[in-house]
Every structure is written in structure tokens, then in C-alpha cells.
TrEMBL record:
GO cellular component: exocyst; growth cone membrane; synapse
Designated name of the protein: Exocyst complex component Sec8
Chain's role: Component of the exocyst complex involved in the docking of exocytic vesicles with fusion sites on the plasma membrane.
Family classification: Belongs to the SEC8 family.
Span list, region Disordered: 58-78, 98-125
Length: 125
């Protein structure tokens, strides 16, 4: 290497060799960029897009933690899934209430209690 060379001639020879290798590497890199320009641009654009999405998500999380913890009603990637889960939970609640009502109708109960339970059942979401 340049720092361990004893005399000036060896240093100059090593310096010339390193400069030549650098220029060869630079030319090779230029050729590869020209050959793979489309793929390179696609990769760069994809990287930028992903970086922007991550930054946006981090900012939303930061804003959410600074403000209230109540989730916003804007539609996001999981909004459809959350709607389906809520619908499923409502159905399960309704079915359990109906099954309880049916069981109570089989047992000896007054007509007034049955009517009240039917009204309660109709009010379920």
C-alpha cells in the first residue's frame, strides 16, 4: 500500500496502479448503469415510494400517539376487515340473544316477560 512503501518510486507505482483500477471500476459501473437503466430506475422509484409510505405511516402513528387514541374513521387497508369483524360480532350477539329468548319461551314464563324480551331483541344492532 501507499503508506507502507519505502521509497518514492514504489509509492508512485502503487498510486498509478490504484488510479488505473479506480478508472476501470468507474467505466465498468457506467456500462452497467447503461445496460440496466430501466431496472435501476424501477428499483429507485420503488424504494422512494416505500420510503414515503413508511414516513407517512410513522407520522400518522406519531400524530395518533400525541392526540387521542381513538382510531380515525378514514378508510385504511384494514377498514374493510374491521367492518366485517364488527358485523360478525353483532350477528353473534343477536344469535345468542335469540337463543336465550327461545330457551325462555320454552320455560314457564309470563307473557309479559316474553314480550319484553322480544322488544329487547329487536333493539339489538
Amino acid at each position: 500500500t501507499l503508506s507502507t512503501s519505502d521509497n518514492v518510486e514504489d509509492r508512485e507505482h502503487e498510486k498509478a496502479r490504484l488510479e488505473e483500477a479506480y478508472e476501470k471500476c468507474d467505466r465498468n459501473l457506467d456500462e452497467l448503469i447503461v445496460q440496466h437503466y430501466t431496472e435501476l430506475m424501477t428499483a429507485i422509484c420503488t424504494y422512494q415510494s416505500i420510503t414515503e409510505r413508511i414516513t407517512t405511516s410513522r407520522n400518522k402513528i406519531k400524530q395518533g400517539s400525541e392526540g387521542s387514541l381513538v382510531p380515525s374513521k378514514e378508510s385504511g387497508p384494514f377498514q374493510g376487515l374491521m367492518d366485517k369483524v364488527q358485523l360478525c360480532v353483532r350477528r353473534q350477539i343477536r344469535n345468542k340473544a335469540r337463543s336465550r329468548l327461545t330457551q325462555t319461551q320454552l320455560s314457564p314464563a309470563t307473557g309479559q316477560k316474553q314480550k319484553q324480551r322480544q322488544k329487547d331483541l329487536e333493539g339489538l344492532p
